[in-house]
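TA notes. Do not distribute before section.
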Amino acid sequence: MKFTKMHGIGNDYVYVDCFANKPPSDPAGVAQKVANRHFGVGGDGLILICPSTKADARMRMFNADGSEAEMCGNGVRCVAKFVYDHGIAIKPSLKIETGNGVLTLDVETKAGKVERVRVDMGEPVLAPDRIPVALKGTHSKDRQAVDVRLYDHIWHEHFQPWADKVGLEPLMTAVSMGNPHVTIYCHNVSAVPLDQIGPLIETHEIFPKRINVHFVQAHWQGEVTMRTWERGSGITLACGTGASAVCVAGVLTGRTSRKILAHLPGGDLELEWNETDNHVYMTGPATEVFSGEWPE
């Protein structure tokens, strides 16, 4: 199986060109093997670049644990770069089919190669039953899961030892960008024990499809720093759909403006929740690292 390793600000995947090659017969199993950073290629998962009847290409994404996800913001930027750079479709604006519908991506090139991509991430989903998040008690009839008391839903004892140290705001805001996200604000994001609390929140019973977890420090209205525990992959250097959800959460809670610069461990993303069309736009780099062959 021929593959190409690519990343969007450190959110790295193994990509397979299914235009030129036969797709793997067991992509979930292959994802688990190639994503292993000690015995495989290493990455956050596997992405298949496939023909589409409704777009320039179709993206199928598998997390490191083999589960198939609806969408990946950093991954889809790399798909656009591959499609353009490898001659599948050389256009300034590309259409990529995902599990969250067909997305429009505008490419920025240098010397004939894509350097940055602006993605129309579509409209955020705010209805709790569509995210989904099963809110309890007085929040169960809320139209949006915005600044919901965290301790009413997540095990309080897991937060108590470190919550005061990081200035945790005991509130969560849930948003779907085609996949589910929860944003939790604090005053010292670097001190959050993400490896301990991330999996507990991801798999909590109020998130029936599990959830991507983001701890965020808002510096001012136009700038945040965030760290992510991704559903099915664990701690990652970046999450594009997550940064989009954080942009929306900041507006809904009054912490940030509609345009923000998000600092992630792997690099920066520019986000805008456009007031006119209600779509979120994400801009960031896409990088090809190397190609090889995996003995499937």
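Switch to the second chain here.
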Amino acid sequence: MPSTGPARAEQRAASEAAILDAAIELYAQRGPDGVSLREVAQSASLTHALVARYFGSKQGLVSAVEDRLAAEVRSVTDALDFSSAEAFIELLTALHERPVWVRLLVRSGLGDLDGSVVPAVIAERRATASDGDRRSRLCAYAAASLLLGWLSWDGFVVPALQLDRMSRRRQDEAVAAAAMSVLQRTTQPEPRLEPRPLTAGDAAVGPPPARSARDALLAAAVELFAETGPASVSIRDIARHAGVNHGLVHRHFGSKDDLLAEAIEVGSVSLLPGAVAPGGFDIDAVVHAMHHGSPSPKTIARVLVDDIAVRNVRRRYPVLRGLLALVRQLPADARPAALADPRLAAAAAASLVVGSVIWGPALRDTFGLTDDDGVESAMADLSRWLLGAPSVRVRAGRR
């Protein structure tokens, strides 16, 4: 006898919950584009027809996952009073205890899910998205970028800067203290955060011009790995995008992991002139390259969110090691006390810039910032301050 009334409603609620839970797990692993409704139904041990009936379409299911993500982030932030670094520590701790949600969070920043989810939650904690003067909004933008950048890239920053033996708690404490210190720059004279042009460096962004099948495959891999992630891109996808036979991937690169490793290397090319500049690490040049087309920040974030072991595809860290070399030359008392360890200072500055690159468009909307506000130069100035590097003075009338 078919169920009716409350029993049917309970059955539907249970089925919807099972579908949503399955979608959350699968989307965290591979992103919505890499998962079909049939796979979600199979994981939930239900029929494809039920998924379509309850959520209408794949977009309906994606929207439901986005709503759950926003609710999850809100459940953490609503319990915190962001007037001290301790609240930021609690935030990072709570999120690190929810790895599935962190992966969905990062995917939203990368565009796999609605990228406005987190900024919307941030905006709810403010009277309006654009209250406060320009400096206040820049500092708030930077603090949010630092925390989100750390969540997106800590799996890369930790091995690159040899923080492996330091506890996660201590790492999070340093990042949280750095974020609070950035917020407190609102009422301080330094850094000045005056809009100014950043140097561009000498290298072109992206892989070299395709002069051979190998070049074409590498260019396709750099683009696709940054756009959709290694887990969702097959060797055939790369070959098809490059317009060559997929057997050439194995001939030229050996394996997908080898191709990924070289794609990361090539994607970092535009950062190298600043990282290994003759006069030392050029903060402005690296920040400019990161914000203007370098695929490296997003590719590495995708490697991490796809749960690929960084050490399998990256054994050299020239940019972060160059940054660390710079910090080791600077006096520890010139930067926030929590960043006395050069490795932590480099981790905070890197996270700040990465967060600005990945989350920038949505955060700019949240904090009411435009290109005229000098967002990128402010990130360079605040990075310099976190590292304890000498500030850049802007000549009168220079923009």
